[in-house]
Specification:
Elements (H helix, E strand, L loop, with lengths): L14 H21 L10 H32 L1
């Protein structure tokens, strides 16, 4: 394989292209998840959005209840 001093024959180096292929597949998977419609690895899913809407509605309900409590306190004090 190699004639002369220095490097010997490259037995076992056939596995390096396999490592490169596996690495390429992993990188392509990560890119497809990042730019795909799945929301990425730590992106928001549709169920997260529905939970956010529920939380927003609950906050609005709590705000309305607090306003009603303030109104009742004003009526009682008058």
């Amino acid at each position: 394989m190699w004639n002369g001093p220095g490097w010997g024959p490259m037995y076992g180096w056939w596995i390096m292209p396999l490592f490169a292929l596996v690495f390429l597949v992993i990188i392509l998977f990560i890119i497809s998840r990042f730019f795909g419609g799945a929301g990425g690895f730590c992106g928001r899913t549709p169920s997260d959005r529905s939970l956010e809407n529920e939380i927003r509605e609950m906050r609005n309900d709590i705000r309305e209840i607090r306003e009603e409590i303030k109104e009742l306190k004003r009526r009682d004090s008058a």
